[in-house]
Amino acid sequence: MDPHSIANTAQSLSLGHLVMNASWVVQGILAILMIASVISWTIIFQKWAIFAAAQRALERFEKRFWSGGEMSQIYQHVSGNANLETGAGSIFCAGYEEFQRQRNKIRPSDALDAARRAMRVAQMREVGRLENNLAFLASVSSVSPFIGLFGTVWGIMTAFMNIGMAGQATLATVAPPVAEALIATAAGLFAAIPATAAYNRYIHQLDKLDAQYEVFMDEFTNILHRQVPETKP
User: Fold this and answer.
1) Is the distance from CB of 140 to CB of 40 less than 8 angstroms?
2) Tens digits of per-residue pLDDT, 136-171?
3) Which of 72, 85, 189, 206 is the most exposed, having the fewest neighbouring CB atoms within 10 Å of its CB?
4) Which helix (H) or strand (E) holds 58?
5) Is the full-model pTM beyond 0.85?
6) How many CB atoms are located within 10 Å of the residue 144 CB?
C-alpha cells in the first residue's frame, strides 16, 4: 500500500471522522449513550451534594439532641429550623408531635406506638428523598453495555457485508465498521462504569443513614417510654 493510501486510511479511521460517517444506527446508539452519560453525571454530582448535606444535618441534629435539655425545648429549637429539621430532625419532630397529640387521649403505650408509626413514616419519606433518581443510575449501569453491544454487533455485520460486496477483506473495507463497533462498545462502558460505581457508593451511604435513623428512633422511643407513667390494667 502506498503512503498516500495509508494516510487516507488513517484519516478515515480518526474518531471524529468515524462518528460523523458512521451508520445512522451507530450514531443513534452513540447519541443515546451520550445523553444517558450526561444525565448520569448530573445525578452523580447532585447526589453527592445531597448525601453530604444529609450527613451534616444528622451530625448537627444529634449534637443538639444529646446536648441535653427538655424535649419541649429541643423541639422548639429544631422545629422550623431548616438546618435541623431534616433527616433525623424531621423524624424527631414527627414522633414528638404525634406523642404529644395522643398521650392524653389514649393509653401511654398506644401513644408510643402512634409516635413510632409517625417516625416510621417520616423515615420512609427521608429515605425516599435520598434514593430518588438512584434507579436511573442502576438502569444506565445495567443497560448501557448492552446498548453498546448492539452497536458492536451492527458494526461487525456492516464489516461482513462490505467484505461480501467487495469480494475481498481489505483494510479500507473492514477497518471503518469494526472501528465503529469498538467505539460503540467503549461508549457503553463509558456510560455504565461511572453509573455503577456511583450507584453502589450511594446505596451504601443510604443504608448507613437509614441505619442511623433507625438507631435514633429506638433511642428516642426509649426516652419517651421513660417519660410516661406506668398504667395499671
Assistant:
1) yes
2) 999 999 999 998 888 888 777 776 676 666 655 555
3) 72
4) helix 24-65
5) no
6) 24
